[in-house]
């Protein structure tokens, strides 16, 4: 049987952590693309305890720094002939306005641009798989907003800025599907639900965060429950191909989430912003 490799971002906490724990027996090797190598090494140990045959590799990748993303992706390319599945799971919610190392608004820069560049660089080794797959973790927060101009560096309230980044990854999923479906790439975006994780929590707002999550706990899913949509997508790539999905059911996107022109404009602007030549050239 062919050796199967998964690469995932954001596995050091919450939904990503539960995802790799659930998928530990589905793959021969897991690449943890993580900004915090210490947390990733602890997770690596736990995964190895769950499945002794599993190979786990930690590669430093800070999605809020394009140089870090490039280094991580090139390192992956050098060390792996192919990967079979890429899960773009990492995400950030920032209550105050912050920027990435490259001057992009933090949520758009991390959740969308960092993942776009990572996918761009990993595409050649994904295409070496007999059944390549990309799963993108989005959010129904996409519905809060449309993509207004200056979306990479602009201002706004937290829900609008987070929503923009999650709308952008939904357009990204649709573009990948349109351009790579006939080359065998299967791509799905998922909404995990409202899940009790570290999302939006910082040292500064820890008390407040605990209070809010504590009060809302009965209404929130556990990380393992939140990982279910991603796991379903990974295990049923044909069934959910090209879909935005939650808990096994397709979510019909609102009209702005399906806008062809907004998507094409975003992709054109992204190529320009990242100094690339064309969409996912390889
Ligand atoms: N929780 C929800 O209710 C909910 C709802 C809808 C969608 N989502 C989406 O689900 C995904 C997972 O979020 P979660 O709820 O599990 O949150 P979480 O517990 O905060 O986990 C987020 C993960 O992303 C990583 N990350 C954040 N910034 C990064 C960066 N600059 N570079 C690399 N990795 C970075 C974190 O790394 P560290 O461990 O180093 O912090 C962590 O592993 C996100 O895409 C989020 O938008 C969550």
UniProtKB/TrEMBL annotation:
Record Pfam families: adh_short
InterPro entries for this protein: NAD(P)-bd_dom_sf, SDR_fam
GO molecular function: oxidoreductase activity
Positions in coiled-coil regions: 33-60
Keywords on record: Coiled coil, Oxidoreductase
Keyword Nucleotidyltransferase: no
Protein name (Swiss-Prot/TrEMBL): Short-chain dehydrogenase
């Amino acid at each position: 049987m062919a050796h199967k490799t998964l690469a995932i971002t954001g596995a050091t906490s919450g939904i990503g952590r539960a995802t790799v724990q659930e998928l530990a027996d589905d793959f021969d090797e897991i690449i943890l693309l993580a900004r915090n190598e210490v947390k990733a090494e602890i997770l690596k140990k736990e995964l190895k305890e769950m499945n002794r045959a599993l190979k786990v590799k930690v590669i430093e990748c800070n999605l809020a720094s394009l140089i870090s993303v490039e280094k991580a992706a090139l390192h992956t390319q050098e060390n792996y002939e192919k990967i079979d599945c890429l899960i773009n799971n990492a995400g950030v919610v920032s209550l105050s306005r912050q920027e990435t190392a490259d001057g992009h608004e933090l949520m758009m820069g991390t959740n969308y641009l960092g993942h776009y560049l990572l996918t761009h660089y990993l595409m050649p080794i994904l295409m070496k798989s007999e059944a390549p797959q990309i799963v993108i973790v989005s959010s129904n927060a996409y519905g809060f907003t449309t993509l207004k101009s200056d979306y990479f560096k602009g201002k706004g309230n937290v829900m609008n800025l987070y929503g923009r980044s999650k709308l952008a990854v939904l357009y990204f999923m649709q573009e990948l599907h349109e351009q790579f479906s006939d080359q065998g790439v299967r791509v799905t975006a998922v909404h995990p639900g409202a899940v009790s994780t570290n999302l939006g929590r910082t040292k500064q707002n820890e008390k407040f965060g605990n209070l809010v999550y504590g009060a809302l706990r009965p209404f929130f899913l556990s990380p393992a429950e939140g990982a279910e949509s991603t796991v379903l997508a990974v295990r049923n790539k044909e069934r959910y191909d090209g879909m935005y999905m939650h808990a096994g059911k397709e979510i019909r996107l609102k009209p702005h989430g399906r806008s062809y022109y907004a998507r094409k404009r975003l992709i054109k602007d992204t190529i320009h912003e990242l100094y690339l030549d064309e969409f996912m050239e390889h």
